[in-house]
């Protein structure tokens, strides 16, 4: 065993003598075993690029791009529409957190129900669109938890259509509106948070759409639409 350690020290001494101690000065480029993404295939700022016809590496944003945190106004400012507020979580109230104090609230916040121009069929339609983009892949188009990912071993997506899901007395199945909003915002279990991807109003629109799916299934006795 002692010869093993002696050999180990001997090999270490050879390496140090050949390459020098860490931090020693040299005009030779370093040997990068783990480059840690120091060199990337990218165009740096204000650099030229022959890939584009105008020779510029820097590109303008895609048409329609908006700064993070703002929404496209429903109507032009000429019609008296107020500038869009910051659309992501910026407060401690029910509208921003889904909570009233330390408890989850139920029902849509006044910021939604009080805006008659938003809280209508178009609001539910918006929720359907956002749900299908962000949620249906795991929770299924009907909210039954059998989305595309369930076919690949991810079987933990919450089933919004399980019996008693609309009954607050059924604690095992029921999720308050604020609780659903909070999970969309912060994530839970294998689900990551979407607070930085989905605006406040769109999160509440998704909550409203989930409720409409549950009500439709309850009234018809069938989970619709079928996955």
From TrEMBL:
Pfam families: Cytochrome_CBB3 (PF13442). Keywords: Heme, Iron, Metal-binding. Residues 122-214 form the Cytochrome c domain. InterPro entries: Cyt_c-like_dom, Cyt_c-like_dom_sf. It comes from the Bacteria. SUPFAM superfamilies: Cytochrome c. Gene3D superfamilies: Cytochrome c-like domain. This is C-type cytochrome. It comes from Prosthecobacter fluviatilis.
């Amino acid at each position: 065993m002692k010869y093993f350690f002696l050999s180990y020290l001997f090999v270490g001494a050879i390496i140090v003598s050949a390459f020098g101690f860490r931090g020693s000065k040299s005009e030779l480029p370093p040997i990068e075993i783990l480059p840690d993404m120091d060199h990337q295939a990218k165009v740096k700022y204000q650099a030229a690029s022959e890939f584009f016809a105008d020779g510029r590496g820097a590109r303008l944003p895609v048409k329609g791009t908006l700064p993070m945190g703002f929404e496209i106004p429903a109507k032009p400012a000429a019609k008296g529409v107020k500038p869009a507020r910051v659309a992501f979580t910026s407060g401690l109230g029910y509208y921003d957190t889904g909570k009233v104090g330390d408890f989850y609230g139920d029902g849509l916040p006044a910021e939604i129900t009080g805006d008659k121009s938003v809280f209508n069929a178009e609001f539910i339609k918006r929720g359907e669109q956002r749900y299908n983009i962000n949620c249906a892949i795991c929770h299924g188009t009907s909210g039954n938890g059998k989305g595309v990912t369930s076919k690949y071993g991810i079987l933990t997506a919450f089933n919004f259509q399980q019996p008693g899901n609309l009954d607050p007395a059924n604690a095992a199945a029921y999720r308050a509106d604020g609780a659903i909003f909070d999970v969309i915002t912060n994530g839970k279990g294998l689900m990551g948070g979407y607070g930085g991807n989905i605006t406040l109003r769109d999160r509440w629109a998704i909550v409203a759409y989930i409720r409409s799916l549950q009500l439709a299934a309850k009234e018809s006795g069938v989970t619709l639409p079928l996955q």
